């Protein structure tokens, strides 16, 4: 695997961390154990059976936790920094044949940044779901997020270039929608005074 492809693979899997932290780690572990993935030096531990079992248990707990109404918000609070760290670690594990300083710079900025952006969008979506459906729509959102983690992880392995292109398009699309929402939201200091009928 060439350097650019390994970077793109790392970015795609980091994006999957934004949906669910442990799903892409489980994918990496299974792929490494089955011989379909070569991990960067220092990250071979991710391709061991104890790591795979740990990731599998953590994945099951994480997925299940998002279906518990009061626990999903707590998980969002914990998952945001965890996703950034996991995105950086996964990117570093994928990037090979690169100077360590450059590798970790790319891993933290690109991998951690992409994971944080995706995780931030899921937090906003959950907040919107909670306010508009009183939390009744959150289980559906949790299912969509889990599906997003699985699909993104699969796509990252099968077509890294396409995955990164789709991630960029999604960031642009949701970024524009967020900016539009922020612009339309009335500022507390600029609210018009109520009109008094004489």
Textual characterization of the structure:
By secondary structure, this protein is mainly alpha-helical. It has one domain. Helix content is 76%, strand content 0%. The chain is built from seven helices and no strands. It has helices at residues 3-19, 23-33, 49-65, 69-94, 100-133, 138-158, 160-184. Helix 1 runs antiparallel to helix 4 (69-94). The longest helix is centred in the middle third of the chain and has 34 residues, at 100-133. The radius of gyration is 19 Å and the shape is globular.
In short:
The chain is mainly α. It has 7 helices and no strands. The model has no long low-confidence stretch (mean pLDDT 85).
Share of residues in strands:
under 5%
Quaternary status: single chain
- State the low-pLDDT regions, or none: none
State the order of secondary-structure elements, H for helix, E for strand: HHHHHHH
Sheet bearing the most strands, described?
none
Which structural class do the helices and strands define?
mainly alpha
Calculate Rg over CA atoms: 19 Å
Give me the secondary-structure topology.
Blueprint (H helix, E strand, L loop, with lengths): L2 H17 L3 H11 L15 H17 L3 H26 L5 H34 L4 H21 L1 H25 L14
Helix pairs in contact: 1-4, 1-5, 1-6, 1-7, 2-3, 4-5, 6-7
């Amino acid at each position: 695997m060439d350097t650019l492809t390994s970077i793109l693979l790392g970015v795609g899997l980091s994006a999957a961390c934004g949906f669910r932290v442990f799903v892409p780690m489980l994918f990496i572990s299974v792929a490494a154990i089955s011989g379909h993935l070569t991990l960067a030096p220092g990250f071979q531990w991710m391709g061991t059976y104890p790591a795979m079992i740990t990731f599998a248990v953590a994945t099951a707990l994480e997925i299940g936790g998002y279906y518990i109404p009061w626990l999903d918000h707590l998980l969002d609070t914990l998952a945001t920094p965890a996703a950034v760290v996991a995105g950086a670690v996964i990117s570093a594990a994928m990037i090979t044949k690169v100077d360590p300083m450059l590798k970790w710079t790319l891993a933290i900025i690109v991998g951690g940044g992409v994971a944080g952006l995706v995780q931030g969008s899921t937090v906003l979506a959950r907040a919107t779901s909670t306010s508009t459906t009183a939390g009744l729509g959150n289980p559906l959102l949790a299912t969509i997020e889990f599906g997003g983690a699985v699909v993104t992880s699969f796509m990252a392995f099968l077509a890294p270039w396409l995955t990164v292109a789709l991630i960029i398009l999604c960031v642009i699309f949701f970024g524009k929608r967020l900016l539009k929402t922020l612009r339309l939201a009335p500022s507390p200091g600029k609210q018009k005074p109520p009109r008094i009928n004489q």
